[in-house]
Write a structure and sequence with these properties.
Blueprint (H helix, E strand, L loop, with lengths): L2 H38 L5 E3 L6 E3 H42 L14 H7 L2 H16 L4 H12 L6 H19 L6 H7 L15 H25 L17
Antiparallel strand pairs: 1-2
Helix pairs in contact: 1-2, 1-8, 2-4, 2-5, 2-6, 2-8, 6-7, 6-8
C-alpha cells in the first residue's frame, strides 16, 4: 500500500468512526424518546437494574432519560469525537514519519539503547519504536503544538488558525469531563483560551448543537488535511523526472 493509500484509508476509517459516534448519539436519543412516548401513552415501562437495585418506571423515566442523554451520553460522545481527532492526527504523523524518518527532529539526541536494539533487531520495528516514542511525547502537548509539528514535517497549510482553536477547546472539554467531572477549572480555561464556553466553577454543558458543531469541524478538518497530505506525497519515480527526496526538517 502506498503512502497516499494509507492516508486515504486512515481518513476513511476516521470519518466512518465519527459517523458511527454521531449515529450512536441520535439512535440512543431516539430510543429514549420512543420509550418516553410509550410511557406517556399509558403503557407499562419498568427496567430493573439488579446490580444497583434501581427500578426505572414511568414515573422516574422523564428525569432519568433527560439526565442520561444530556450528561452521560453527551459526554461519552464528546470523548469519542476527541479520540477520533487524535487517531487522525497521530495516525497521519505516524505514516509520514515512517515514510520520511528524516523528518524526526533532533535525531542525534534520541539514541536507541543496545538492549532495546538487540531485543527488537529489526530495522522496520526499530523505526516504528522511534516513531512511537516521538509521538507519545507529542500527545501530551496542546493541539497547536501537534499541528505546528505536523506543518513543519508536511506543510499542509491546514487546519486554519480558527479551526485549531476550536479543536483545542474540544480537547480541553474532553479532558475536563474525563478528569474533573465536567466542572470548569483554570486548566480548561487556560487551554481553551478565547473559545472557552463556561466560567470557572460552572458545570460544562455538552449540548446537542455543540456536539454537532464538533462533529462537523473534526470531519471537515480530516477531509481537508487528507486532500492536502495526499497532494504532498512525492510521486513514484516512474511518474516524475529524477529529483532529490523532499527536504524534511
Amino acid at each position: 500500500m502506498t503512502l497516499a493509500d494509507e492516508i486515504q484509508k486512515l481518513a476513511g476509517d476516521v470519518r466512518d468512526g465519527l459517523d458511527e459516534v454521531w449515529d450512536l448519539y441520535l439512535y440512543t436519543k431516539g430510543a429514549w424518546r420512543a420509550t418516553q412516548r410509550f410511557a406517556r401513552a399509558g403503557r407499562n415501562v419498568e427496567i430493573h437494574d439488579r446490580k444497583t437495585g434501581l427500578l426505572l418506571d414511568a414515573e422516574r423515566l422523564e428525569h432519568a432519560a433527560q439526565h442520561f442523554l444530556s450528561v452521560h451520553l453527551a459526554q461519552s460522545v464528546l470523548v469519542r469525537l476527541a479520540s477520533h481527532l487524535e487517531d487522525w492526527v497521530f495516525g497521519l504523523l505516524n505514516h509520514w514519519l515512517i515514510a520520511f524518518p528524516r523528518g524526526i527532529p533532533f535525531k542525534e539526541k534520541k539514541p536507541i539503547g543496545l538492549g532495546e536494539f538487540l531485543e527488537i533487531f529489526d530495522l522496520n520495528a526499530i523505526l516504528q519504536a522511534v516513531v512511537d516514542r516521538e509521538l507519545n511525547s507529542l500527545k501530551y502537548e496542546r493541539p497547536a503544538i501537534w499541528f505546528k509539528y505536523l506543518d513543519d514535517r508536511v506543510g499542509l497549510g491546514c487546519p486554519t488558525p480558527d479551526q485549531i482553536e476550536i479543536l483545542t477547546e474540544i480537547k480541553a472539554a474532553r479532558d475536563l469531563v474525563s478528569h474533573n467531572r465536567g466542572i470548569v477549572n483554570r486548566v480548561y480555561l487556560d487551554k481553551a483560551g478565547s473559545k472557552a464556553r463556561f466560567a470557572l466553577g460552572a458545570l460544562y454543558d455538552v449540548d446537542e448543537p455543540y456536539l454537532l458543531s464538533s462533529w462537523t469541524v473534526i470531519r471537515d478538518v480530516v477531509s481537508a488535511m487528507e486532500t492536502a497530505a495526499v497532494a504532498k506525497v512525492p510521486k513514484p519515480a516512474a511518474e516524475r523526472p529524477l529529483e532529490s527526496p523532499p527536504d524534511l526538517h
